[in-house]
Design brief:
Double-stranded beta-helix; 4 helices; about 20% helix; two-stranded antiparallel sheet; globular; alpha+beta
Length: about 160
């Protein structure tokens, strides 16, 4: 099977249509997905809902999934997958000040690790029709569009990320 890969914008992302991600993919299909990821940096895989094991299998096409550090978020017997929710169980649980909202602010997933993953995979179960808060950006394109003088100022700099 060959996927239909449709770019979402000039900056980032492609939609992948025509795959059955509930079943194991062929080597050629995996190579096609990896190539699309390297080209577009963000893939939206259109699929029926996946079981945790099927989702793990899709994640493994991009590398070796690692165990999620927050045990309470584990999904069943697949500790490499965690469940995150964007809604609060009760009104009292919602912080009065949005800056104290969980997972608020811009971040990169697991960039504090010595060997950070090359990708984060999300599997939406309940997706808001509008005003979703998950955003993605192409930092390579942002860097490429910097003035040469700014690139020279950045040359040789290194960032250290921490989790606290």
């Amino acid at each position: 099977m060959t996927f239909q890969i449709r770019p979402l914008s000039d900056a980032l992302g492609a939609e992948v249509l025509g795959g059955n991600f509930k079943e194991a993919l062929t080597v050629n299909e995996i190579d096609e997905l990896k190539s699309a990821f390297l080209t577009y940096h963000l893939l939206c895989l259109r699929s029926d809902p996946l079981s945790p094991k099927s989702f793990y299998q899709v994640a493994s096409y991009f590398g070796t999934p690692f165990m999620e550090t927050t045990r309470k978020n584990w999904v069943g017997d697949v500790p490499e997958i965690s469940r995150l929710e964007s809604t609060y169980k009760t009104q009292e649980a919602k912080p009065k000040d949005p800056k104290f909202s969980r997972r608020s602010g811009w971040h990169t997933d697991h960039s504090f690790k010595e060997f950070p993953p090359k990708a984060t995979l999300l599997h939406g179960h309940e997706i808001p029709s509008e005003a979703g808060q998950t955003r993605f950006c192409n930092t390579q394109k942002a860097y490429d569009n910097l003035p040469e003088a700014t690139k020279q100022q950045l040359e040789g700099l290194m960032g250290v990320h921490s989790y606290d």
